Amino acid sequence: MSSSARFSGVSIQNRRERERAERHQLIIDAARELAEQEGWDAVTTRRLAEKVEYSQPVLYSHFKGKDAIVRAVAIEGCGVLARELRKARSSQGKSRLQAAAEAYLEFAEKRPALYDAMFVQQVDIPWGTDEVPQELRDAFGELVAAVEPVAGERDLETLTEVFWSALHGIATLTHGKRLRPDHHQARIDLLVRSVQLGTAP
Amino acid sequence: MSSSARFSGVSIQNRRERERAERHQLIIDAARELAEQEGWDAVTTRRLAEKVEYSQPVLYSHFKGKDAIVRAVAIEGCGVLARELRKARSSQGKSRLQAAAEAYLEFAEKRPALYDAMFVQQVDIPWGTDEVPQELRDAFGELVAAVEPVAGERDLETLTEVFWSALHGIATLTHGKRLRPDHHQARIDLLVRSVQLGTAP
DNA sequence: CTTGAGAATCTAGCACTGCTAGCGACTAGA
DNA sequence: TCTAGTCGCTAGCAGTGCTAGATTCTCAAG
Asked: Cα–Cα distance between B145 and A53 in angstroms, integer?
């Protein structure tokens, strides 16, 4: 085998891998778009395959199953949420806590399908001691950073979990039309004030 | 038609209606049991029909579809939750708020399938201006009653919504293994304290 | 007691789901 | 040019929710 032939082979292999990675991303994007346009019920392997213009089995050469595709969308979504929360850090005229709460709930409201994949559908993303995806760490880290200034003597991580739970509860119950649509801002203000109040004076 | 014949006819009709009502309840109970034992994924129309020892179409003579069965289970579940919260009212040694929070989360943890039907799966139970089932009113009413003593000058219903959201968030995130299993009690205490703190001194 | 109308129930099937075995075409290296 | 081996496709399986149409059963009237 000549050196040029070997080089050519490697190059072709590289191109193949690149194309494969692109198609991998194409599937994730198509799934997210389909879900955002028509809901997760519309995301069937057949429709997804049609959207990416391949046959169904191709999906299974990239992902172990439909769940794995949803999981990939969810993890990307965590990255988006983390960036949104980071942007909110620098919003003027309100506390970090308030800004984070509003940014979080705005994300949940504007991208309900994405939010659903991330936190409502149980897609067993590793969360405990396992290898937690960086996107998740980032998102939770942003919440910790928002809570930190008001934690006072209270345990930071526990307080963040409670704050997050309240936001998550508001997000899902609002989406399910279980809370009065007006009073949305009042709930946010009340929550933020409650979390702030424990600060040591 | 003789008078006795008419009476007999009415009686038979009554018996029929009674048997029909019993079977209606049998279906709901079977669905709940199946869900609690093996999860909602296992609740298929076929397995449910087998469990009640009728064919599938019988289910559809009682309910418009599978969703309606889940909804019936969910509404009954709200009744159960309401009673649990009511029981917690009279627990000694802790505030009403604390007792309600613990009772709510214990219910969610001990009957995850039932909780899922009630508040996670979106089964569009009427909630807004429509005819809201009494069971739902009762359950939310119990939460309002628990929050009322500490509301102070804050809007009672809004504060209850926030409190409920936090409980719901903790319940679902705990179930999805998103929160640290130890620290459960710490989260409850922190939440209760935060909600209490706003009370006018 | 027989009979026939009407209700109650079941069988069988549809269109869909996630997923996969196995075939055929195409590619790349000898 | 020939031959491995990869690649993607067709076709199919077992399952889903749901329903049309046949069948069985019930019960009052004759």
From this structure: 57
Among residues B114, B40, B118, which one has the least CA distance to residue A176? B118
* Residue-range domains of chain A with CATH: 1-62 (1.10.10), 71-201 (1.10.357.10)
pTM, full prediction: 0.92
| Nucleotide with smallest C1' distance to residue B40 CA | D16
Residues of chain B in contact with residue A120, where contact means CB-CB under 8 angstroms, are: 120, 172
Protein-contacted positions of strand D (CB under 7 Å): 7-12, 15-21, 27-29
Distance CA A56, CA A58 (A): 5
> Is the ipTM here above 0.90?
yes
Q: What is the mean pLDDT for each group of 10 consecutive residues in chain A (201 residues)?
A: 44 76 96 98 98 97 97 97 97 94 98 98 79 94 98 96 98 96 98 88 60
Asked if A164's CB is within 8 angstroms of B187's CB, the reply is no
- Protein-contacted positions of strand C (CB under 7 Å): 8-13, 16-22, 28-30
